[in-house]
Fold N-acyl-aliphatic-L-amino acid amidohydrolase.
Amino acid sequence: MRGVRRAARRAQRSDAEVRSSATGHPRRGGSLGALRGLRSWLAGPGFGNSAPSKEANTEAGRAELLERVLRDLEVHNAVLVSPSLSGRYALPFLIQGHHQLRGFVPIAPASTQNYTQEQFWAVKLTKRGAMASEGLEGEHPSVTLFRRYLRIRTVQPEPDYGAAVAFLEERAHQLGLGCQKVEVAPGYVVTILTWPGTNPRLSSLILNSHTDVVPVFKEHWSHDPFEAFKDAEGYIYARGAQDMKCVSIQYLEAVRRLKAEGRHFPRTIHMTFVPDEEVGGHKGMELFVQRPEFRALKAGFALDEGLANPTDAFTVFYSERSPWWVRITSTGNPGHGSRFIEDTAAEKLHKVVSSILTFREKERQRLQSNPHLKAGAVTSVNLTKLEGGVAYNVVPATMSASFDFRVAPDVELKAFEEQLQGWCQAAGDGVTFDFAQKWTESRVTSTDDSDPWWAAFSGACKDMNLTLEPEIFPAATDSRYLRAVGVPALGFSPMNLTPVLLHDHDERLHEAVFLRGVDIYTRLLPALASGLAGPPRWPAKALAPGGAH
């Protein structure tokens, strides 16, 4: 065991010869950065009479040790060379982590008596004898699958949901998962892929993701946003790369790995792929949680989307701000544009707009003056639309201004609505407001160590040496509908050291970050799907139809 650690440290300190997967030419590099994205050879040393350790006690521990060596060296597509007769370390890693390997070379005839034929069948070999799965030459098969999903044009306002559903049905068949389609509105289908647990009395684990993506302006992109172009550094450019097709494939690939290992868990795992999230979820999750098909899932806990984090930490979201879309309408005296008309709609609307923007500035300063506050902890507001008038020389009788409020979870919503009313009354007679959207079910998922779901989630992350930063999501996701019906939900997209580029031009994700996310979910799911994570219950409450308004 000490030999592996010494070898890893030596590899970090010394020059390492690597062979480029693109050119095949040997290169010399003295840093971990030189190894990233290159096909490498990693020779595992003998362990001799090393003292017993926790890692050596189990197959999973030995496989995790080699996985950690690869991760610490930032090596991908490695070829594992094993001189061992017992295969005590190499074979568990080959069976459990073979998707991280480009090849396996057993120098000695290792014993295979502890493994089934089916387990070895899951490891595919190339004609040259090196392990490989379905995928492009030199590319990790999980990345190939990710890029394929990104090419499906589920872009608003006319998403190709049919192609996405067909893709998911194909994956369900290949993985041996149950597949259910629920049409919550004409043309809007929720696809559910199910891996049954061994104890149907326990509540289930929901892995939620949305299939639609936001519009693009192709002229501002370096590459076609639906080509899923991968550059020489390993960055994949595509709409949905961060939001949130990466997470969808990470769910699927983690489940595939666990099934290939022959794993089974007490809790049933449901992967839900929902439409319409990017335009509010009103024809997606909002309707789905009202249906008997959702209640039949017996959901106990859910994971949903989060955000990238440019630091080494991973952000996890336990609540989110309430979206209020408010239109202020002002009426006043009309007249000719050449006259000084008194009590006009514009004058009164100006007073309301000024009051709201003054409030906005106070919240902005509160956020900037407190380094411990995050964006989700304050209420934001932006003026998004101004309407009114028919001609340059006519003073309009009616004008309106529309605002996007994101109300922090600790704000008393009734009092905040009264404040809105007060701003309108102070502007004068004939000023009213109405809601295009008004979310009133602000819920918080516990992040207390005494909570079994949080303990399972954070404990697994701690075991992986992940630093978590719990926050309130600054915008809105489908998690709000799940929390509103009593299902605790965390928003988590495992993308650290990555700029936040959702909805942006040149949205992209590095393949190494994506693959690490698959590794993370492969470790998270066993912790959450065990019988120890969370109480054996599921919520009975449901929102009234249209409960978001």
Observations:
- Residues 2-121 form one domain.
